[in-house]
From TrEMBL:
The keyword Repeat applies. The gene is Lrrc57. The keyword Cytoplasm does not apply. This is Leucine-rich repeat-containing protein 57. Gene3D superfamilies: Ribonuclease Inhibitor. GO terms for cellular component: cytoplasm. It comes from the Eukaryota.
Amino acid sequence: MGNSALKAHLETAQKTGVFQLTGKGLAEFPEDLQKLTSNLRTIDLSNNKIELLPPLVGKFSFLKSLVLNNNKLTALPEELCKLKKLETLHLNGNHLRQLPAAFGQLSALKTLSLSGNQLRTVPTQLCGLRHLDVVDLSKNQIQNVPDTVGELQAIELNLNQNQISQISVQISHCPRLKVLRLEENCLELSMLPQSILSDSQISLLAVEGNLFEIKKLRELEGYDKYMERFTATKKKFA
C-alpha cells in the first residue's frame, strides 16, 4: 500500500474520526496515526498482519472503538489500558495468551471480544470493569472458570468451544449475568453448579455439545426455576 493511499485515509479520518484500513497486509500499526490522537473515535485494522501494538496506542484518549480482528498479536501493551473512553474492543482471531495487568482500568468498556485466541483462563482483570455488557471468550483454551468470576459484571458471557471441565459455583453470584454460553466444552453434568439453575440471574443457559444429554439437565433440581426466568425473558423480547 502506497503512501498516497495512506495519506488519503488519514485525511478522511481527520474529518470523520474513523480510521478503517482492513485486509491490506499491514505488518505494523501505522505510525502516522499519531497525528490524529485527538481526532479518532474509531480505529479498525482488522484482517492485517500486525504483530505488535505500539505504546502510542495509549495516546488516543478519545477512542471509543478499537477493532483488530484477525491479526497476529501475541500481547497487548500496558499503555492500551489508558484509553478511558474505550467502549468496544474486538481482538478476535489473534494469538493472545493474557491481558495486561492494568486492563481493569478500561473503565468505559462495554463490549470485549477475544474469540479465537490462546487464553487458558477467564482473565481476573475483567472483574474490575463495571460497565461490561458482553464478553466473548469463545474458541480459546480455557479449562476452568475460577472463583473470581463471581465479581464479573457482564450481562452475557460466551465461553463456547473451549475445554472447560470445571466451573466455580461463584458464577451464579454474577449480579448482571443473564446469558451464559458454554456450548462444546468438556462438562460433565455433575460439574455444572446447580445454583446456576436454582439461584442465579441467568435466563439463557446454552450447554449443547458437552458430555451429557440436554434432557438430563431437565431432571436437575432448580430447572423449573430456571425455566421461569427463561420464559419471562422470552416474553419480554417477544
